[in-house]
Amino acid sequence: MTGPDKEKLYPNTNIKTVCYISNLPKKSNVEIGEYTYYSDNKKSPEKFYDNIEHHYEFLGDKLIIGKFCAIAEGIKFIMDGANHRMDGVTTYPFNIFGGGWEKVTPTVEQLPFKGDTVIGNDVWMGQNVTIMPGVKVGDGAIISTNSTVVKDVEPYTIYGGNPAKFIKKRFSDEKIEFLLKLQWWNWDEEKIFNNIEKLTSEVGLDQLMKEYI
């Protein structure tokens, strides 16, 4: 035995509020890594895609989520389709209401474009977190409950608030550099299983550094 079946939507059939969202039907503009789960006690976690807003294929932006992420209920990913043109006197979207106003429909090039939204590996996002367009969240980061993330988050840091601000680093710079090189989330299932105590204990990081440095 080397862990749960990563191919199952519900890896633990006794807990139907948690699912591996990489096993949902695929979408061309969404990429999700293995073992990343979404937990929702209010509605089926199978409705994860409902939390991705203003995401239109013709704009070309992607939502990319790494492996082994923990995503709590209330998550919102605001994508580039939410943006209004900002170089004129007004930001009001006249064109969507018709009646002749569509003559000022902006081109894709005239709209603010933040690019892909990228969530790294082993990221934990608490309840009711909002991620704004184009944000990059580094590996091992933690986003606290009720945060709105408007700028990039460095690896292995904790951010919180609205707008989310840096709170602290999880580890020393030396240990963060080691973890980014280690990339344990890319290990095979057997290696993870054999090292799971080290990955989850307070002293495990020091043990891993002794083995791999």
UniProtKB/TrEMBL annotation:
Gene Ontology MF term list: acyltransferase activity
Keyword field: Acyltransferase, Antibiotic resistance, Repeat, Transferase
GO biological process, alphabetically ordered: response to antibiotic
A Pfam family that the UniProt record links to this protein: Hexapep
Transmembrane annotation, as ranges: none
Presence of the UniProt keyword Protease in the record: no
InterPro entries named in the record: Hexapep, Trans_hexapeptide_repeat, Trimer_LpxA-like_sf
Family note: Belongs to the transferase hexapeptide repeat family.
Protein name: Vat family streptogramin A O-acetyltransferase
Taxonomic lineage from the root: Bacteria, Bacillati, Bacillota, Clostridia, Eubacteriales
